[in-house]
């Protein structure tokens, strides 16, 4: 009896031992990833992982997407930003949106190689770009970028005259007024090109840090076309301040009309294309308020406008304007300081051609309301263009300053060239 019990115990011990060994083998098989067929969930070895990575790399798309500006860029261009291109494949989808989710329309090129926004972007705005592409085998590629466009405080623009597509007189310069002071004048000027179909040499002149004008040595040729190309996008105008304009504008030069006011004889001779077409009696500035001499360019035209002496320093003892006429007819500006050639209905007809009575303007006979085409003022207004030249001579005053209005013609050509930064 005792012997049998001992035999049973031995069998149990052997089974337990066998179970322990088998359990150890199973545990080892579950962790080793051996070559004799371990579990399907087994983790690969380092050598196996490397092989898998290599295989995945060999299967990557040949399409390479490029987004400009790069991810994280700031002070990005509002004209050339968000350009998406691809090599080794074609773009399948591109989206551009502001940080708050507003989508920006764009166009994918017919060949699928590039995408760009349809219009100019906004300044001081963060944009997100997401692009996808595929290669010839249909394998996909993705690229994302976020950038912020240049802020108003870090950018400058130039307000220019004349307007694109306009027709002007032979004296109209290209005049650009920048909204911030320019210190890198050379870089800015060399990125502005002004040319004429007449072949005339055109030179820029800086009057100050904010104003740059262009003109030829003599008046523009009648019938010519003048083109200005602004390539200022990304051009540094001052430390940390960059241009944003990228455009081409052009204007046409009409017939040549130059009118000469003689303050002594109190007449104005109007010459068109070199021929006298009319002589008009005028009333220039009085002996106390003489009219500037010199070549002046018509820069603005108003059928009727208000003229208040207080705005140009003509005040009485109470500080009020010496005159305040709310409906001056047929008025055309000659200087920024307030000189006009305009209609006068309040003066006696006898003063025109016989007496100088104004506060410095050139007056022509007119009627209240500017509605009579038979009056000299109305006729001259209707026959004048912005950019026409009015020359005043024989006045007991100095020559108008070249920067007082669009009147750079009062500077010698050598002095004009000396003001160029290039």
Automatic annotation (TrEMBL):
Pathway, per record: Glycan biosynthesis; Cell wall biogenesis; peptidoglycan biosynthesis
Domain L,D-TPase catalytic residues, every copy: 257-393
Gene Ontology BP terms: cell wall organization; peptidoglycan-protein cross-linking; regulation of cell shape
Domain of life of the native organism: Bacteria
Location of the region described as Disordered in the Swiss-Prot/TrEMBL record: 36-75
Residues annotated as catalytic: 342, 361
SUPFAM superfamilies: L,D-transpeptidase catalytic domain-like
Protein name: L,D-transpeptidase family protein
Source species of the chain: Streptomyces montanisoli
């Amino acid at each position: 009896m005792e012997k049998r019990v001992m035999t049973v115990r031995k069998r149990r011990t052997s089974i337990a031992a066998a179970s322990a060994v088998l359990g150890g083998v199973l545990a080892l098989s579950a962790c080793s990833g051996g070559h004799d067929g371990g579990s399907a969930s087994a983790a690969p070895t380092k050598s196996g992982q490397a092989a898998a990575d290599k295989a995945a790399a060999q299967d990557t798309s040949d399409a390479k997407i490029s987004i400009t500006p790069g991810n994280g860029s700031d002070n990005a261009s509002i004209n050339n930003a968000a350009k998406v291109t691809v090599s080794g494949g074609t773009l399948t989808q591109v989206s551009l949106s502001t940080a708050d989710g507003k989508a920006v329309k764009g166009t994918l090129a017919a060949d699928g190689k590039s995408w760009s926004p349809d219009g100019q972007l906004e300044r001081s705005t963060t944009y997100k770009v997401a692009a996808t592409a595929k290669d010839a085998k249909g394998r996909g590629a993705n690229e994302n970028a976020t950038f912020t466009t240049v802020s108003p405080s870090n950018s400058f623009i130039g307000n220019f005259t004349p307007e694109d597509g306009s027709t002007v007189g032979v004296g109209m310069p290209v005049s650009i007024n920048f909204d911030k002071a320019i210190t890198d004048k050379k870089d800015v000027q060399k990125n502005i090109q002004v040319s004429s179909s007449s072949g005339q040499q055109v030179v820029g002149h800086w009057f100050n840090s904010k104003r740059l004008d262009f003109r030829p040595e003599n008046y523009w040729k009648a019938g010519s076309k003048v083109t200005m190309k602004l390539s200022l996008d990304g051009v540094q105008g001052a430390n940390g301040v960059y241009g944003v304009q990228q455009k081409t504008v052009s204007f046409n030069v009409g017939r040549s009309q130059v009118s000469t006011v003689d303050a002594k004889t109190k007449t104005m001779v109007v010459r068109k294309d070199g021929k006298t077409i009319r002589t008009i009696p005028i009333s220039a500035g009085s002996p106390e308020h003489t009219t500037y001499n010199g070549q002046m360019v018509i820069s603005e035209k108003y059928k009727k406008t208000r003229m208040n002496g207080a705005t140009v320093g003509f005040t009485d003892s109470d500080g009020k304007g010496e005159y305040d006429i709310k409906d001056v007819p047929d008025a055309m500006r000659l200087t920024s300081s307030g000189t006009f050639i305009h209609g006068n209905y309040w003066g006696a007809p006898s003063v025109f051609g016989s007496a100088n009575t104004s506060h410095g303007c050139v007056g022509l006979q007119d009627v209240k309301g500017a509605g009579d085409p038979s009056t000299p003022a109305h006729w001259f207004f209707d026959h004048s263009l912005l950019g026409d030249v009015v020359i005043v001579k024989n006045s007991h005053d100095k020559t108008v300053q070249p920067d007082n209005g669009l009147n750079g013609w009062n500077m010698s050509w050598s002095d004009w060239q000396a003001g160029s930064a290039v």
